[in-house]
Amino acid sequence: MLSRSFLKAGHTPTLLSSFLYFDLSFMVWVILGPLGVAIAQDFHLDPAQKGFMVAVPVLAGALLRLVAGVLVDHIGPRKTGIAAQLVVLAGLGAAWVLGIDSYHQVLALGAVLGVAGASFAIALPLASRWYPPEHQGLALGIAGAGNSGTALAALFAPGLAQVFGWNNVIGLACLPLAIAFVVFLIFAKDAPNRPPPKALTEYLDVLKTPDAWWLMLLYSVTFGGFVGLSSSLTIYFNAEYGLSPVAAGVLTAACVFAGSFLRPVGGALADRFGGARALTVVYILAALGLALASFHSPTVWVAFGLILFSMMALGAGNGAVFQLAPQRFGKEIGVVTGLVGMTGGVGGFYLAASLGWAKQATGSYQAGLLAFAGLALIALTCLTGVKARWRRTWIAAADAAGSASRV
């Protein structure tokens, strides 16, 4: 998968720095999910409050991705990444030193953690601009595999919370973030072909293009499902199957690692077979897995298997969507990454919050999971309607520009 031409095409230190920055930022972005059982016990939260608690950082990250995308185009991804990391380190440090004493303060911390979620709109353009179109899927898949950081939170945060207390885990998270920050400072470089900044009004022009809205819809399902489940699974396994926070965290981490591993695979398959073909398979598999998972399984292992299957499909879909985006919006990749990433986060907010609301209203997570399976089928229908036009127009445009394209 890592061919000699790929290794020669771009800038490997920047690619790996982008991955590390993205990975550890995502670790803290969703950390309230793995800590959610302990936080809920301290503040006596109901299922709806727990769902909203883990959804707030996802929504904040979604909205801030658009801001990050604009900054990437104006001052470059490296400077934007440095500023974002300093904000997150300062926010976590302040929360640890001052302490968190109420549910509303937890929500305020969640809003600050949204800055870490905005790393998506910074790390991906930083890596993408170093690579030609024929290697975009794999490069963005590798950088985007940093969403595996959500697995690190699920794997380590519950156990550390048992030993040190959940508030101290927030302070401990600053240590790996500081290491990633130093690596980023030393090794990350802006690509020499960075497009000139545009006036703010020009960014609205992207929204006049229907293709931008289609990509936003597609990603709201793939990434929304991935991050929404990543944020909620520790609470889900604890509430539905009585697992301890540590055991629930281990199963959550396995699901997230599997989905993250499939992201570069999805990008590579999209490079080879076309992003539309890859996404067609993704949405069918994800809808099937989520629909089956919505029925209360007889054992936790059956439920784990179904959710693992769904997360792998969604992870591959994340890579496939971002194989398509640079082909259509190469010059506007910063703001498009922000827009597409924003709607991905909105999808994650919806899923995490709807699972909590469904549990509160019906005593089951089924309605929330079935509704998201339905969204996957809607995305499949929309993709089927536009992919023929994409193949005609995008490939023709790529041929005229003398570059390769596979839709």
How would you explain this protein's 3D organization?
This protein is globular. The chain is built from 18 helices and no strands. The chain starts with a helix and ends in a 6-residue tail after the last helix. The chain has a single domain, classed as Up-down Bundle (Growth Hormone, Chain: A). With 407 residues, the chain is an all-alpha fold. Helices cover 82% and strands 0% of the residues. The chain has helices at 4-9, 12-29, 36-43, 47-75, 77-98, 103-117, 120-128, 136-144, 149-164, 166-172, 174-187, 200-206, 210-241, 245-273, 275-293, 300-328, 333-362, 366-401.
Gyration radius from CA atoms, angstroms = 20 Å
Highest CATH level, the class: Mainly Alpha
Order of helices and strands: HHHHHHHHHHHHHHHHHH
Unreliable segments (pLDDT under 50, ≥5 consecutive)? Answer: none
Helix content: over 70%
Notable traits:
407 residues, Growth Hormone, Chain: A, single chain, 18 helices, mainly alpha, 0% strand, globular
